[in-house]
Amino acid sequence: MLFKDIIGQEKTKAQLVKSVENERIPHAQLFVAPKGSGALPLAIAYAQYILCQNSDGENITGNEACNLKFQKLMHPDMHFVFPVATSATVKKHPVSDLFLAEWRDFIANNPYGDLLDWYQQLGIEKKQGQIGVDEAESVVKKLSLKAFEGNFKVMLIWMAEKMNIAASNKLLKLIEEPPEKTVLLLITENEDQIINTILSRCQVVKLFPLSENEVKTALVERAHLNENEAVKIAHQADGNWNKALKIANNSGNDDQYEAWFITWIRTAFKAKGNAAVIQDLIGWSETIAASGREVQKSFLNYCLQFFRQALLKNYTAETLVFLRPKSTGFDLAKFAPYIHGGNIIEINKELNDAMYHIERNGNAKIILLDLSIKLTRLLHQKEAS
């Protein structure tokens, strides 16, 4: 993975390269990054720079054989951990090593992909993957061995927030006192879901959403879009390269999410004072509940963004409004006045609470119906004068 192939994050790249060249590599680092900002390819490029003894800020000047191994993600001292679950081919005790072929394919084709993309690749999008104690035991065994090529060993843990408590506790001592010449790179989108004892033992590397200009330039250069189209997509992508590509290729879930959201909003409006419409909300909740927990969480995140965009529209912050609903008969400008300072905080709280309970295996039908009934009240709440 070449540093030059990673969009933006120039300051962070320079800091990582400097740490290697000054021989001051922290033994445990936590990359905290929003979706689509490039933490995974950046961490791989950093690991390649360390293991292949590259220089001059790029991965082409060191050990040629080592760099070739990294192109195929098959370096013996580079280890990967990521969330997994039982699948059609792995019936029990799933660990990352059993999915390495799929992982290499995932990175080769979609290095900016998110957790749902990964689960869809494995065919487990209706399950919640995790990094469990079996995985933690495997990590401890791997890192207790000497480096195959006599240099560093690097362990990259993607979506580290998916470590369960047993795995976190198992890895805690390893993170605190790793074997000599061992580097642990953890990546998370949710820093607050990492247990404090691990968080306190890692050097935090913060990444930021890509700028609109960075996304636009990349769309022109990599996706070969014309500048006008690239500007439009970059505005909608909200700093997420993965989302920008999906919009460009019309391959994302947003169209489905938009249809679910608009049906939900219209039904919630009608439900006030009309008990018969509650049955429609029950039906809606059952539809979403059938989609699988990762899709449910992704959809609720989409709803959060939709409500925020409506709020910005209501307060005429037009330069920040990138949402362009495709559904006929739905006008964001007409919906926006219903989202204001009097209800947005509570709407935000209820959506986050719903995601929290779904994450913890609550009954999705009940959670979503409860959220829908609360939304019915909140949409009709007046803004304080």
Describe the structure.
The chain is of the alpha/beta class and 385 residues long. Helix content is 51%, strand content 7%. It contains 17 helices and five strands. The chain has a five-stranded parallel β-sheet with strand order 2-3-4-1-5, with helices on both faces. Strand 3, helix 7 and strand 4 form a beta-alpha-beta unit. Helix 13 crosses helix 17.
As residue ranges, the low-confidence spans are none
In the sheet with the most strands, the strands line up as 2-3-4-1-5
User: How many runs of DSSP E, i.e. beta strands?
Assistant: 5
Rg, nearest Å: 23 Å
Which structural traits does this protein have?
17 helices; 5 strands; 385 residues; 51% helix; alpha/beta; globular; 5-stranded parallel sheet; single chain
List the helices and strands and how they pair.
Elements: H1 10-21, E1 28-32, H2 39-51, H3 64-71, E2 78-81, H4 100-109, H5 115-122, H6 133-144, E3 153-158, H7 165-176, E4 182-188, H8 196-199, E5 203-206, H9 212-222, H10 227-237, H11 241-249, H12 254-271, H13 278-289, H14 293-314, H15 332-335, H16 344-359, H17 364-379
Parallel strand pairs: 1-4, 1-5, 2-3, 3-4
Brief summary of the model shown:
The chain is α/β, with parallel strands linked by helices.
